[in-house]
Amino acid sequence: MPFQIAKTIASSTLLECLRPQCLSCQSTMTKLGSICERCQEQLIPSPNRCLFCDLPLTTARVCIVCRSKRAPIDQFQSAFLYREPLPSLINLWKFQNRPDLTHLIASLAANSLQTLLLQNDVVVPMPTHWRRQIWRGFDHIWLLSNALCNQLQRTPPIPILKQIKWRPQQSKISRSLRQRNGHIFEARRSISNQTVVLIDDIATTGETARAAAHAIKEAGARSVALVAITSA
Ligand SMILES: [Zn+2]
Ligand SMILES: [Zn+2]
Fold first, then answer.
1. Who surrounds ion ligand 1 at CB < 5 A?
2. Which ligand is in closest contact with the Cα of 41?
3. How far apart are CA 1 and CA 60, in angstroms?
4. Distance 112 CA to ligand 2 centre (A)
5. Complete domains list, the chain, with CATH
6. Which residues pair with 145 in a beta bridge?
7. SS3 12
8. What is the DSSP string of 154-210?
9. 164 alpha carbon to ligand 1 midpoint, in Å?
10. Ligand lying closest to the C-alpha of residue 43
11. Is residue 115 within 8 Å of 71, Cβ to Cβ?
């Protein structure tokens, strides 16, 4: 673990030890590195909906119309709506050097995501470009994927996908630009005839997921599901 991250964790953990607080509303707690019961109750489970057109659905699938347009994603499930306390928690985890929050985030989402995570053959983390990993100091999706597999007692994730092209952060660019992202992922090896579930933190754009799923299907996968902590 890089020194800077270890230092940040050590200092934040020391502060929390002295005066444990809810990571979202800062109310006093007895437990370290968690969110209070009131904040947990504010997490709203995501209803089943199509990733591409938002159509409400009865199961965690992509709608028939979007699938007929050859969207390479067959199933989709996000755990929670993008409402507080989730954005604060994810911001702390990803942008303020708190890889120690991975376990908490995985434990909040594991129950909602377990069906798709357990029924597919291979778990594949959505790759993070090496430049972003260096900047952040850790690969949060890799940690999350391992934590989810560990909590659900299934085989560990396999980093099959590689991001071959640098892109700006997807939430900061227009939809038309995202659609021109093109060929950004590559599979490192064949996964013929297996079913794959991709893990992401925030499914912000169907286009990124579509590009990743396309690379996985080109490597031979029979089907591709996507799970995310939240979708925005
Ligand atoms: Zn709270
Ligand atoms: Zn649809």
1. 22, 24-25, 36, 39
2. 1
3. 37
4. 21
5. 41-231 (3.40.50)
6. none
7. helix
8. -PPP---EEE-S----GGGS-HHHHHT--S-EEESS--TT-EEEEEEEE---HHHHH
9. 40
10. 1
11. no
Q: 30 burial class (0-12, 13-18, 19+ CB within 10 angstroms)?
A: exposed
Provide the b/e sequence for 49-88 (b: ≥16 CB within 10 Å): bbbbeeeeeeebbbbeebeeeebbbbbbbbbbebeebbee
pLDDT in tens, the chain (232 residues): 555 656 555 555 565 666 788 998 988 888 888 899 999 999 999 999 998 888 999 988 889 898 888 678 999 999 999 999 999 999 999 998 899 999 999 999 999 999 999 999 999 999 987 677 777 778 999 999 999 999 999 999 999 999 887 655 555 545 544 444 457 899 999 999 999 999 999 987 677 888 999 999 999 999 999 999 998 7
Rg for the chain, CA atoms, rounded:
18
For residue 166, how far is its CA from the centre of ligand 2 (angstroms)?
28
Handedness of CA 226, 227, 228, 232 (dihedral sign): positive
pTM of the predicted model over 0.90: no
Contact 73, 223 (CB under 8 A): no
